[in-house]
Amino acid sequence: MIRLIRSELLKLRTTNMWWIFLICSLAFTGLALLINTAQAHSELQTPDYLNDPPPVGMSDENKAEFLAQQQADRDRVAQARTAAGLVKYAANIYTSGQFFGLLMVMLLAILLITNEFYHQTATATFLATPKRTRVIVAKLITAAMMALVFWFIATVIDVLVGVIFFANEGFGNSLGSWDAQQAILLNLLVYALWAIFGIGIGVLLRSQIGATITAATLYTIGTYAALAALALIREFLIKKDWVMEAAVYIPPLASEHVVGVLAGQLGGVDLPARWVGVVILVGYAAVLGTIGTLITRKRDIA
Question: Which of 149, 169, 235, 237 is the 20 to 30 A CA-CA neighbour of 120?
C-alpha cells in the first residue's frame, strides 16, 4: 500500500494541474477573506450616526423612529461584540475560501482517477496491481493527503489574516475558543471528504472532461439552483421552516453548516447540530466510495 501511495503521489506531482488548482484555491481564499473581514468590520464597528442627535426640524413621530433605529443598531453591535458573536465571525474568517477550495480539491481528485483512462494507463496500473480495491484505496488516501495540503495552506493564511484583523479591530481573536477550533478541525474533515467525492465521481464518469464539467456545474450552479428552489417552495407552496432546513442535505451547504456559517446565509434559520452535517457528508462519501470501488472491480479496463 505504501508503494501504491508513493506511485499515486508521483503521478500527481508530475502533472501541472495540482499547482494550478492550488493557485486558484489561494486566489479564492484571498477573495473570501476580503469579503468576510469587510463584513465583520462593518458589523463590529459602531456606525458614526449612532452618536448623532435627531436632525433639527424632525417631527416627533420621525424622531421616535430615528431613536428606535439607533437603539436597534446599538443592540446589534453589542450582540456582535459578545463572545458568541466574535466566535461566529472568527469561524467564518478562519474557514474563508472553503466553498471554492472544496471545488478545487474535488476536481483534482477527479483528475487523479480519470487521468488513468484519459492517458490509457489504467490497464498497466491494474496489471501491476491486480487487486483493484488496493488501487482505489491508495487513490482515496492520496486524494485525502492532497486535500490536507490544500486545507493547511488555506488555514494558515486564514488564521494569520484573522489574527491581524481582530487585533486591528481591538477584539480577541477567539482562537482559544473550542467553537472556533472545532470549525477549523471540522473544515479539515470536510476537505478530506470532498476528495473522496472526487474519486467516486471520477470512477462513475470516466470521461475527464465530462466528469470535471458535470461536477463543477452541479457543485456551483446546482447548489444555488437547489437553494433557490427550496426558497420558492418555502414562499409559495409549503410555508414551513423545515423546507429551508433541508438545505443541509445539499453537500456543499452541508459543508458550510459543519463549520457553522450556513445559518447566517439562510437568514438565521434554526438548523440541526453540526454533527448532522458531518453525518450527511460521511454518508455521501461512503456511498460514492463504495460504488466507485465496486464498479472498478467489475468494469473492463482495457
Answer: 149
Angle, CA of 98, 18 and 207, to the nearest 5°:
95
Distance CA 24, CA 143 (A): 17
d(CA 258, CA 237): 28
243 to 234, 255, 257: CA distances (angstroms): 6, 18, 16
Determine whether 15 is exposed, middle or buried from the number of CB atoms within 10 Å of its CB (0-12, 13-18, 19+).
Answer: middle
Q: What digits encode the pLDDT tens for the residues 133-164?
A: 788 888 889 999 999 999 999 999 999 999 99
The answer to whether 74 touches 190, Cβ cutoff 8 Å, is: no
Mean pLDDT across the chain: 85
Query: Among 4-8, 120-124, 148-152, 214-218, which is the least confidently predicted range?
Result: 120-124
- CA 231, CA 83: separation in Å to the nearest integer? 31
* 153, burial (CB in 10 Å: exposed 0-12, middle 13-18, buried 19+): middle
CB 117 within 8 A of CB 283: no
Provide the grid cell at 100. 471554492
**How far is Cα 203 from Cα 166, in angstroms, rounded to an integer?**
44
Q: Of 115, 118, 116, nearest to 126 (Cα)?
A: 116
Query: Residue 248 has which C-alpha cell?
Result: 443541509
Question: How many angstroms separate the CA atoms of 183 and 261, rounded?
Answer: 9
Count the residues in the chain.
302
Q: Angle at which helices 208-217 and 98-118 pack, to 10 degrees?
A: 160
Top mean-pLDDT range of 3-7, 69-73, 172-176: 172-176
Nearest Cα residue to 277 out of 204, 182, 156: 182
Instruction: Name the H helices within the chain.
Output: 2-13, 17-44, 60-80, 83-94, 98-118, 122-128, 132-169, 178-204, 208-217, 223-232, 241-245, 251-258, 262-265, 274-298
Alpha-carbon span 158 to 155, nearest angstrom:
5
Of the candidates 177, 214, 189, the residue with the CA atom closest to the CA atom of residue 84: 177
